[in-house]
């Protein structure tokens, strides 16, 4: 199977081109600077000579007028201190040489040139010539000629050129070094960007982007050769529980270890992709693998069967796998993905840690589930939910002491829906957190409304497993209590036995935080899980709710009678109150009263009713006798 990604290195020619460009720019800059420096030195030299000429002409004028050749020669001889002056000649008005100075070793063959020819003279690269009128008493009495060599200028220019070239070379070297480092940094950045674009940083597996691109390539190949292609979609079972309970750091480390096992199970020919939070995918394009796709899937299930050891703890991670095959289940990527997802969700519904091939029946179930998820989101936005309340009565006097809040959904097409028809999907999608927060706010608001009417009923609210595992649960509860003005002593949170035992240590801490806020805590559906008596003693709960499955066949089923009796006795020994759910007959009520159950609720007294109906029952004074609440089922 081809590699999912490929990186192209930066071309060495590009690096050479950059260096040449920098070198050419520096060369042009160097030539420009040298030319400017030469012009500046030449200009300064000319100005200096002109100043010397004016001074010299002023000093020598009187000697010229008086005909003092020796004096004039001595004045000119002082130019020996100026090494750049090769020759100086003083002419009288008849263009005769009156005095001259010639630096030893310099050439003087041009001295006989007539003064009249001076206009034809000019400076060149080797010399500079200047003529200066000699004025005495306001009248010109002669002409002074001076020629200088360019040795000093070229020495300065050579020093400047050397310095400039050295600076330019150092600059070029530094630029080349910097460019090399920048290119290495760019290459690393490109490689990193390429990695991030195509790989998952937690597991080091190719990501969804790489999967999509590679899947389409393999699909095109299968079409071209008229072959087959299998798509497997993996979802880790209950992994969100670990994330919610132990945090994302532990979750990420576990994902990395899971990915390593999946890669080993996949073998060198196949590639595993991480396509979601706890979702993975793999394609099989070899006919032998496609024919044995179930065997391949079971290989992954076996790979994750042994516990994963992390932080001295054993984690058991199951996986549900769904598969679809091109061209039998679909001919494009979208359909194959949808079908594999449907098969995966069907595998979860079959008990998890399971593999299922796609079938047409699954498509209908998947579509129904997706539609339900969409409708749940709409229901939240459009306030289609309503709370119903089932009364709770104390024993033995059957006095109304509280209610349990139960959600109902006013579906636009299907009418009033009970929780069992939509809560499982809400749990899977995470919408249960938003729905649960709405339930808490509404229940607290209603409890305070009844309290204002003089009926302070205890409000029991169920917390889902995902809701209870939220790291910000305590903060959320604090905000709800503050915004609704809820009397926390009237609020009771119910958590199932199974949820409490998922991480008993963390549960104890979280329960203590909630208890400190003044609310009551109850263990719901007691008897259906695997409670440890040691932890049960430590949990700061005040009530146990016996699940309706143990009440249903009382007093006819001796096992249910024994279990219920033992549960009530055990709870009382731990100083916990007992609430029996699902009481539907007077015989059940009589048995529970005799065994000392503290409270009961069920259809014998009242089905769940709306807030308006509940208010009518309370305000009219009903509820003090059990017969007042016996309603039609």
UniProtKB/TrEMBL annotation:
InterPro entries named among the record's database cross-references: Biofilm_reg_signaling, CHASE8, EAL_dom, EAL_sf, GGDEF_dom, Nucleotide_cyclase, Rev_trsase/Diguanyl_cyclase
SUPFAM superfamilies per UniProt: EAL domain-like, Nucleotide cyclase
Residue spans crossing the bilayer: 20-39, 157-179
Residue ranges annotated for the EAL domain, each copy included: 369-622
Residue ranges of domain GGDEF in the record: 227-360
Protein name as annotated: Diguanylate cyclase/phosphodiesterase
Keywords: Membrane, Transmembrane, Transmembrane helix
